[in-house]
Amino acid sequence: MSEASRSPIIAPSILAADFSCLDRELEAVSHADWIHVDVMDGHFVPNLSFGADVTKAVSRHTDKPLDVHLMIEDPERWVDSYINAGASCVIFHVEATEDPVSLARYLRSQGVRAGFSLRPGTAIEPYLPDLHEFDEVLVMSVEPGFGGQKFMPEQLEKVRTLRKEIDSRGLEVTIEIDGGISASTIAQAAEAGCDAYVAGSAVYKAEVPNDAVDELRALATL
Ligand code: DX5
Ligand code: ZN
């Protein structure tokens, strides 16, 4: 299905939530489609967030699919803990593995969706031939590591390239954008061909997070 034929997927990132009351923070985004879980190891990115135990705790407090973004070195070593923690999609960085296709095949063999992500400085073209091995591509529109950064519109070029490739080959791959998504940037991401939108600060800094989720979905509906 091309992007136009499905309603926009809004995935609040709990990196921007209040970690002292994650159950309430998950409740606050009950209108969301997915929950985006930003795992950071302090090596692949210069920040440390949370790991599999928090991911497991999150899965106990929501029925929404967990979109787990691994910003970690050596993802092969750790993916099982996120599968066991209840991830519905595990997204690793192509810069952190020698063999993204084998890792994707392993994830799918374990019954979870396989996603890859790439830093703003990494080209998408080398990964197009293997797109059919994946269920999701997470295009970073900020340098990974922190929430609240400025949207990088030039990254939408990758989205346009992906949209063309996916539609021309009739693939079922979700294009998700991550970083600096807000009411003022989401429409251009939708125009470029995104299916799913991560939003951390735009949702959790809002007066009413669910209103922000509703507004983002409306703005992304073409
Ligand atoms: C950054 C993370 C993003 C970030 C999004 O490394 O991957 O998911 O939390 O936060 P905002 O929406 O505030 O840019
Ligand atoms: Zn993320």
Short description:
By secondary structure, the protein is of the alpha/beta class. It is built from 8 helices and 8 strands. Helix content is 32%, strand content 18%.
Molecular structure report:
- With 222 residues, the chain is an alpha/beta fold.
- It has a single domain, classed as Alpha-Beta Barrel (TIM Barrel).
- It is built from eight helices and eight strands, in the order E-H-E-H-E-H-E-H-E-E-H-E-H-E-H-H.
- Bound molecules: D-xylitol-5-phosphate and zinc ion.
Query: Into which percentage range does the β-strand content fall?
Result: 15-25%
CATH topology assignment: TIM Barrel
Distance between the termini: 15 Å
What number of domains?
1
Rg result: 16 Å
Average predicted local confidence, pLDDT: 97
Output the number of helix runs.
8
CATH superfamily heading: Aldolase class I
Tell how many strands the DSSP assignment holds. Answer: 8
- Name the helicity range: 25-40%
Strand order of the largest sheet: 1-8-7-6-5-4-3-2
Supply the CATH class: Alpha Beta
What's the CATH architecture? Alpha-Beta Barrel
Largest sheet: 8 strands, parallel
Low-confidence stretches: none
Secondary-structure element string:
EHEHEHEHEEHEHEHH
Structural class assignment: alpha/beta
Bound molecules: D-xylitol-5-phosphate, zinc ion
Shape: globular
Provide the descriptors you would attach to this structure in a database record:
222 residues, alpha/beta, TIM Barrel, eight-stranded parallel beta sheet, binds D-xylitol-5-phosphate, binds zinc ion
Produce the secondary structure layout:
Elements: E1 9-12, H1 22-27, E2 35-40, H2 52-60, E3 66-71, H3 75-84, E4 89-93, H4 100-109, E5 113-118, E6 136-140, H5 156-169, E7 174-178, H6 186-192, E8 196-199, H7 201-204, H8 209-220
The chain binds D-xylitol-5-phosphate (DX5) and zinc ion.
D-xylitol-5-phosphate binds at residues 13, 15-16, 36, 38, 69, 71, 142, 144-145, 147-149, 178-181, 198-202.
